[in-house]
Amino acid sequence: MSNSLTRSLPKNSSAVIATARLIAAKDLRVERRSRVLLNQVLPFALIVMVMFAFALDSDAVLERVAPGLVWLATLFSVLVMVSRSFAVETADGALDQLRSAGVPAAGIFIGKMLALMVQLMVLVALLVGAAVVLYRASFSWEGGVLLVTTAIAATCGLAAVGTLYGGLAAGAKGRETLLPLLLLPVVAPVLIGATRATESAFGTNGIAISEGWPWFGLLTVFAVLFSVAGAVAFGPLLDD
Amino acid sequence: MSTPTSTKVSPRDRVTGTPFTRGLGILVLAGMVLLIVLGLFVSPADVNQGESVRIMYAHVPGAWLAYLAFIVTAISSAAYLWNRTRSLTWDRIAGASAEVGVLFMGISLITGSLWGRITWGTYWTWDARLTTTAFLFVTYIGYLAVRGLGGTHQQRARRSAVLALLAVLEIPLVHFSVELWNTLHQEASVAGRGTDVEMDGLMLFTLFLGVVVFTLMYAWLVLHRQRSLALDDMLDDSGLDTALTARRAEGMSR
Amino acid sequence: MSLIAHEPSTDVVIDLIDAVAVLGSFPALAGATLLVRRGEIVLLQGPNGAGKTTLLRLCAGLIPLERGQGHVLGVDLKNDRELVRHRVGVIGHNNGLYADLTVTENVRFWGRTVGATQGEVDAALQRMGLNGRLADLPVSRLSAGQKRRTALAGLVARRAELWLLDEPHAGLDAAGRDELDQVLKLAAASGATVMVASHELERAGQLATRQVEVVAGQVREVGAP
């Protein structure tokens, strides 16, 4: 009897992909309507960048640490964005509904991860622009290529880990403080890798662009590992 | 499944010690005494560092235990998830090991920090091993926080097992990135930290003894803690029996 | 047009024998025995804390079966409860809607989780009376009753065979409640099975084919209303 049921169950890979597309589209549509990223997160990140300038109070220092500040501001914003991403699901019990509808968990994970990644790319683009304007950073065409590829790998890794731990903390008591505690140690490699790669792209301290590519490799490994781990682990995490 | 149908707690079950753990405990005590004598008094001071080298006898075993505890938690978590029937014993071993591991990680970090201060003048340095240990420490605190989130025993077990396995993924990545960061930095300040100690035979033996005694102590602590966790869970379950009876009686009276 | 797209496969929809389910360590369901057949509309009555919600969640495959036996739509709740989920629709105190999206977008989303066509989505909206000017309103602008109907439209679009509803009449005015009853009766007539937990004893006659009482985690038959 369970054979006929498993046949009717949408658990194959095309179902996962279809689910991922559905959920990613839904998340982005929600963002387009509610504009939380646009109206709240981006201004927050920009203010963080300005605050850094107040705290560090030296143009020379700012120019040197610009890459680090861009990714620090990104990390802080990720916490807020992940929280928001799951608040949308738990507000009216939609995540419960998704589970109770038997929607494949891996599909939910990939969908939310992709939507988060798109939003993060927008954020990083803005923050790099802010670094150029506020901290006098600059980059060549080649540096730009490194920057874009780094951003793709880094945001993919952050989105994967964020969605995974966000799912774990969703609906749990004390989750606002639990999420940063869980998430920040895990994304340390992304902070290190993305900052070093961005340093090369900006040419900070005379570091050559070629030195940035190994870091891009590290970021890619991180992104792949956690994307796969997330797709596998999300189901068990969501279950009761 | 794994829920016991009869949850009577016998008098024997209320104690977490067995002849084996008592023997183990005596061994640990004797070993600790020997370690203290050798470490603090009998073994020679270092040529370079003087008496402060004795911190090593607590620090190195502590660090070793921190990583051993981590490995045990990871393996137990995998065993819990792997096993079709999801035996909660694996979950309790993972939890007990994590608690003890956090303790030893704390010891390792504090002693290492003090040792660094005395010997090299700094409480901290960003070398890969130290930084990774600090990250492991924080990760485990997060792990213990998640274990305390509540819900059924199986829920707790599943969440923490997934978390522990993710940590297995995360910790090598952190270690690798920090190491890569340091080698490229050309700032490898206190190179050879912790290894530039000339070890004579007795020091080596004491260090080895320290590792063995601490490992036995870890085993003793985990065995007891795992059993007390089992008793906690059994209490919850037997509470279920009592609560079931009470609820049914409530139904009868309506 | 039938609300359910495919033919049902078994006659017994819910079969619980001495089922125990816990919330934390509290035995919310303390040995429930219940048999429900296809097409029935079962009204679950009982005081607060009696275990009605837990019973619904158990039948939806959302919580584990701690002790006893349970089968829903032929699926063994002890080992395979994940497999029953996509055939069951649960609407509880929440509606499972996305507040920023419109009614149509919500229903289309839920329909798409099982690959429903736009035609099926439109039909679902029409059945629930949501295809007029309400269709393009964001859900946040809707009244409680309209949100409830949107959630049910989602169940229709998803072709759920078993509808488990927790206090669905709450927050609805008299007309809204009548409408809801009509919809539920039509769903049952088309092959779905409906189980409703409700305080509304007056509704029993209009809606349910069978009444069941949940008291202190156990189930008692009350009979046909």
SSE map:
The complex is a heterotrimer of chains A (240), B (254) and C (225).
Chain A: H1 2-8, H2 13-34, H3 36-56, H4 59-90, H5 94-100, H6 105-134, H7 141-169, H8 175-186, H9 188-202, H10 213-238
Chain B: H1 19-42, H2 56-82, H3 88-120, H4 128-147, H5 153-185, H6 201-252
Chain C: E1 12-23, E2 26-37, E3 41-45, H1 52-59, E4 67-72, E5 75-76, H2 77-80, E6 88-91, H3 103-112, H4 118-127, H5 144-157, E7 162-166, H6 174-189, E8 193-197, H7 203-207, E9 210-215, E10 218-223
Parallel strand pairs in C: 3-8, 3-9, 6-7, 7-8
Antiparallel strand pairs in C: 1-2, 1-4, 4-5, 9-10
Helix pairs in contact in C: 3-4, 3-5, 4-5
Keywords:
heterotrimer; A: 240 residues; mainly alpha; 84% helix; disordered N terminus; B: mainly alpha; globular
The largest pleated sheet of chain C is described as: 6 strands, mixed
Query: Tally the helices of chain A: what do you get?
Result: 10
- From the spread of the alpha carbons, the general shape of chain C counts as globular
- Could you give the count of β-strands of chain C? 10
Would you write up a description of this structure?
The complex is a heterotrimer of chains A (240), B (254) and C (225). Chain A contains 10 helices and no strands. Chain A is mainly α and 240 residues long. In chain A, α4 crosses α9 and α6 (105-134) packs across α7. Chain B is mostly helical. Chain B has helices at 19-42, 56-82, 88-120, 128-147, 153-185, 201-252. The longest helix of chain B has 52 residues, at 201-252. Chain B is globular. The model of chain B is unreliable at 1-8 and 186-195 (pLDDT under 50). With 225 residues, chain C is α/β, with parallel strands linked by helices. Chain C has helices at residues 52-59, 77-80, 103-112, 118-127, 144-157, 174-189, 203-207; strands spanning 12-23, 26-37, 41-45, 67-72, 75-76, 88-91, 162-166, 193-197, 210-215, 218-223. In chain C, β9 and β10 (218-223) form a beta hairpin. At the A-C interface, α1, α2 and α5 of A face β5, β6 and α3 of C.
